[in-house]
Amino acid sequence: MSNRTSIPRVRALVAGAAAGLLLACAAPATAAQADGEPASDGLIPTLPEPTGRHTVGVTELHLVQQGRPDPWLPDRDRELMVGIWYPAKADREARPAPYMPEGTAEILGAEFTATLGLDPEAIDYGAITSAGLSGAPADTRSGPRPVVLFSPGGGVSRTLGTALVQELASHGYVVVTVDHTGEAPVQFPGGRVETSRLDDMPEDNPYLAMTDARVDDVRFVLDQLEEIASGDNPDAQGRALPRGLARVLDLSRIGAFGHSAGGATSIHAMAEDDRIDAAVDMDGSVVLGRNEAEREAFRERFPASTEGVTRPFMFMGAAQEEIPEEGGEPVVHPNTHVTFEDWGRLWENSPGWKRDLNFPEARHFTFTDHLLFLPRIQSELGLPPEVVASVIGPLPDPGRAYASQHTYLRAFFDLHLRGLARPVLDGESPHHPDVRFVP
């Protein structure tokens, strides 16, 4: 990665902490509404309905890795909250799960409205729900399903990837989402919320410490999925798993994807764990550090960044604006393996299947649910267009860009986890005018 581009990209990773707060415009049901009190008259952001034929179920697990110290609180064992989204049977008793747990939403929602100068009641966080039916029985009629792991950006809640996650589940995938505790607020059973501790990152190479913890998290989650598939229940509270969940986990077909730091996590976890067959990196640098010494230490710990990988991967990049040192109008640079040294090294040294897709009008958070929420907030609450453009880019049609995202993402996993031919991956398409293939 050149000096010109490395600073903004590294900032973008941990700036996810602030941006996650700034943009957490979709928050979940509040206690007041759950108790039957009237909802506010605020705006209710919504996600598009998944396009697949399957009903979507969702459950949460509280996982504790005994004997592994938490990187932020070394006197505690590492604990995680994960979501499992899966093809489900229709269940009249199952209710749509909230987009985000109440305690998490309270923190993120307050930060969002304050940062944008909105009244706290301007958005009805309590009315936002997902397409996932909480605890619905798994649909076992088609046998075991491919499993895909999702890792969010640095300092960002796992819920910010819900649209893509439930879309994949509606097409027959089991998708497991991971909150990397200590980065974004995470609510645990009983209402306890662990807040962000990014300010307490180790002074000595914090990006390396964060990525190391993330990769370990992913590998631990895979271990726990094996426990579920064998008939055990790893939930720390012993809460019941959805009926049939163990029977829909095909752990011989596993993929991973993520945004920003989550994209890097997916690539490096695949390089270190043979259980992961294919990975997608959405706009995430694969080498991080504040200076060359830290970046070199990162490369030594995660050699795939320079030596490449042998399994299939795909980059999905946005673009970023750089203000010239001499001043003037910002210059827009696409995020591709041609323009970024770290992506370029990985690309050139990876002999297997690979693709690099660029969305020239996108920005870093286009690959999150912000793409779907912010345009409506802009139109109904008067959010300045330049604020929206700085986050998701000057896209002519955000809905079309989202459709392209989930089309290419699903096609990638269809090809590499299911062995299904997907010609859309062969080159540019008039049906996806926002996407460029980078050779």
TrEMBL record:
<dbReference type="InterPro" id="IPR006311">
    <property type="entry name" value="TAT_signal"/>
</dbReference>
<feature type="signal peptide">
    <location>
        <begin position="1"/>
        <end position="31"/>
    </location>
</feature>
<dbReference type="GO" id="GO:0003847">
    <property type="term" value="F:1-alkyl-2-acetylglycerophosphocholine esterase activity"/>
</dbReference>
<keyword id="KW-0378">Hydrolase</keyword>
<keyword id="KW-0442">Lipid degradation</keyword>
<dbReference type="Pfam" id="PF03403">
    <property type="entry name" value="PAF-AH_p_II"/>
</dbReference>
<dbReference type="InterPro" id="IPR029058">
    <property type="entry name" value="AB_hydrolase_fold"/>
</dbReference>
<protein>
    <submittedName>
        <fullName>Alpha/beta hydrolase family protein</fullName>
    </submittedName>
</protein>
<keyword id="KW-0443">Lipid metabolism</keyword>
<keyword id="KW-0732">Signal</keyword>
<dbReference type="GO" id="GO:0016042">
    <property type="term" value="P:lipid catabolic process"/>
</dbReference>
